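Final report, closing paragraph on structural work. Over the funding period we assembled a curated collection of sequence-structure pairs, and we close with a single example.
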Amino acid sequence: MLTKCLFPAAGYGTRFLPATKAMPKEMLPIVNKPLIQYGVEEAIEAGLTDIGVISGRGKRAIEDHFDISYELEHQIAGTSKESLLEDIRKIIEQCTFSYTRQINMNGLGHAILTGERLVGDNPFGVLLADDFCTNGTGVLKQMVDLFSEYQCSIVAIEEVPEEETHKYGIIEGKEMEDGLFKISNMVEKPDPADAPTNLAIIGRYILTPDIFDILRTQEPGANGEVQITDAINQQGKKRMVLGYKFHGRRFDCGSIDGFVQATNYVYETMKS
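Its predicted structure, as stored:
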């Protein structure tokens, strides 16, 4: 049964400097709620309430956010502002939070391997908070429903402009049914001329625990880092791995343009 979800959150967020000099990029707010809280809410919707955060230096604000602030609660008790904490209180009550540090920044694959002790020998979700997804049922919930049927690793995918394939892991595979692909190959950040398709992996994964054995011996790939795409590609040579074209809309909040677009979208949605 899926109950665990890893949140890699050790990156420096350099594209948002100087804002991220002392604040984790995962705590950047979309209107009045930090990115990582949206992600945890998506995990809860999918039934994943054992939350593991792979953090790093300067990330204490994440731990503090998912904790009680007695002084703050005392100050606003009985006022109209008290209701603004209802959502985060529910999250704290529903979830168990565990934390570990990625000492060296060595890629997403290395970050996930760092979280092995937080998930143990269990299938688990992975959510990258700066891929902000919205519209209807959460992406992880859609993927958990698929996992219950297929019991294999699943990556969320979407079509991207061909000239942007160098920014993503790209899949190649056969469409089994509408929007669901059996993956035959995966390439990390290929040049557009070398990309097998324009189906890009985005920051939602369901992984089976045998991925850790692969990651332990995984050689560095693109950018000299341990890439989770390469590890899942190896996994797919031995057992089925699926790519799922999810329903919803994604904003790349790792970029300033995507972050502003997401903020405007959520603000307009709140007003309507």
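The chain has one domain: 4-271. Residues 40 and 51 are 8 Å apart (CA to CA). We thank the funder for supporting this effort.
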